[in-house]
Amino acid sequence: xxxxRRFAIVVGSSLxxxxxxxxxxYRLAAGGAHTGIAHGKALVVAAQSLPxxxxxxxxxxxxxxxxxxxxxxxxxxxxEEVLQRPVVSPIEADExxxxxxxxAKGSGVxxxxxxPPGLRAASVRVNDVVGVAGFVLPGMxxxxxxxxxxxxxxxxxxxxxxxxxxxxxxxxxxxTDAKGQPxxxxxxTLLVSPPQAEALTLANSEGHIQLVLRxxxxxxxxxxxxWQLRALYGLAAPPEVRPAAPPPEAARPRKPAAxxxxxxxxxxxxxxxxxxxxEVIMIRGNxxxxxxAPPKMAN
Length: 299
Fold this sequence. Notes:
Layout: H1 2-38, E1 40-46, E2 61-67, E3 120-125, E4 141-148, E5 157-170, E6 187-192, H2 194-206, E7 208-214, E8 227-228, H3 229-232, E9 279-284, E10 287-292
Antiparallel strand pairs: 1-2, 3-6, 4-5, 4-7, 5-6, 5-8, 9-10
């Protein structure tokens, strides 16, 4: 009887201590949760899935309370900050809406908010062959090849004009199907720079273009020299016709110089013979002199 009483006292004391410890921890946990909620912050999240290109409406968002230390960077606290702004990246339900996932207010809808400053969206017409049987989907990267006949050449040539180009949309679809199914589209829109847009437009109007699908992680630009139709069939290139080199200076025929009039030389005039007058020798004594004879008188 004495042993049973001691056992009952031990069991009762253990139960009492267990009750007190449980009540203490429960009170601390409830107080901590209450304190966390009191110091929480409102966070705007998506009330439903928001696809790419959608505009945030009042019924598509809601607010929840989160601890301040768990508040995402770039998130919003009031729905008014995100209303009427386009979605540039798909947002799932209950996912926080951050600045990087939506465009600026007034930037438009559809493709416009997805075009970074300084770039352009250029569309090209494709078919099942050009569009790689419909497997060119938004978000993928492609190379653009053009086939045509260059000016001044008789041989057809294929050359790569653009590499590692981002696909913005296939037809009217601007996001990839969840199942990755091919999209039958007649137009593919590519994200290019202004010079690339000029090259793409010229290639689309003057030649035949072909889209080549590439791995999105491959960022390398491969140097290519193009491929000619003659080389495809293993034919030798025609000899290059070069203009004949001009003959050397010594071998050039000289044009006859224009005959110049020879200067007229004056005929030599004979010097007139000096005519000496008649002379007479006069002797006077021992002196001898020569004197001119007097002129003859005309008869």
